[in-house]
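Tutorial, part two.
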Amino acid sequence: MAMLPILSRFQYDAHILAVEVDTDFTMDQVAAACAEHCINHHVKDQPGKRLRVRRTTEDDSAEPLPPEMTVAEAGLQMYDCLDIYFEG
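Running the prediction step on this input gives:
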């Protein structure tokens, strides 16, 4: 269990934020940690839609990471950039 800063690029937000996550966090917990800084601040909530996490790519084509996968299992490194988005 260690804290790791990642970069969060949240869907519909014009900001990229540094967010500290625990290496034991699941991707669902990462999404929730990033959402705290965006939903109802910069981004409108979309109740009923699940938040998903994927690695940031130039064309946004990366597959979402499994919700139960941990930060450590994903091999995330300090300041890796992740897209957080509403599924569906």
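The chain has one domain: 3-86. In part three we will examine how such features are distributed along the chain.
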